[in-house]
Amino acid sequence: YPYPVTLLGMAEEFMGEMSAEGQQQKTVSKVKNAARRFLEYREIKDIQLRLIKPKMVADYVKAARLEERSHSTFKNDIHYLANVYRFAIQQGYLEASINPFKDVPIKNFKEAIKRQPFTRMMLNELMKTSEADKDLKQLIQVSYYTGMRLNEAFTAKVKVIEGIYCFDVAPEGGKTKAAKRTIPIHPSLLNTLSSDGTVEVLWSTKTATALGKRFGRMKDKVLNKLDNHLEKRSYCHHSFRHGFTTMLLEAGYQEIEMADLTGHERSNMGRTEAGRTYFSQQSIAKLVDMVASIPDL
User: What span, in angstroms and rounded, lies between the C-alpha atoms of 230 and 228?
Assistant: First the structure.
């Protein structure tokens, strides 16, 4: 092999090529997201492309099926990964070889499940059940008061802006260009995270993937206890995100206002007159008020 190129490195170069060709940023970012999800499954930071074999990809497909990943999203991920590998060969980084992501059969995936926000009863039971597990309890609290995605909650750092403690979310970018954002810390959560004059989020669990699996097992246990007939697949960590958005809507905020907290692209909104005009990033004071509208857990 001419060069020991890695998946992330090659994905970045391919994204640069896509941008130069005029591809939309939202489409370009999907390449990195596809690479990131594959690496999260492997629980590694990066991998040389030459080490990715068809058996590894076949196992990835099986794992995605068991995790009930969205068929369309997963199919797109494999498509983008195949293009990254093909691009590496075209650029001379790899010798011509079998593309492990090409023509991968993606069968027997279940239909997408509509996610639901956790009810107050579910939240209370989750908190009670996680009492002896610091990481799970912290994950529930951080997710409830911020609506962050699991990986965002795991990697977010605390910083002070205009005297306000905030989460610095996805500083290196994330699922979308808008994923990079600042979320003021809710007063109740601030009290929980404060210790010896400092405010920080620490995890003893090594990876976001491992933490997510632990949360999933606990969530299923809680839902079975509450009602064995509940559709457990409708509730997952993303339910915190749905709940966060719902609570802001109930507090009277519009979706376009919430974008600075949720990390949604404003270009996907804007069907109202306000959305058709330029909507600048809101002040920290406004974001503080929005977060403070979230009821105590």
Answer: 6
**Using CB atoms within 10 A of its CB, is residue 72 exposed (0-12), middle (13-18) or buried (19+)?**
exposed
Tell me the residue type at 17.
E
Q: Are 29 and 177 in contact (CB under 8 A)?
A: yes
Tens of pLDDT, residues 27-66: 899 999 999 999 999 999 999 999 999 999 999 999 999 8
| Percent helix, percent strand, percent coil in the chain, to nearest 5 | 55, 5, 35
3-state secondary structure of 214: helix
Compute the distance between CA of residue 18 and CA of residue 26 in angstroms, rounded to an integer: 11
Q: What is the value of pTM for the model shown?
A: 0.67
Question: In Å, what is the CA distance from 46 to each residue of 30, 40, 43, 56, 231?
Answer: 17, 9, 9, 14, 35
Between the alpha carbon of residue 26 and those of residues 40, 231, 269, the distances in Å are 21, 32, 14
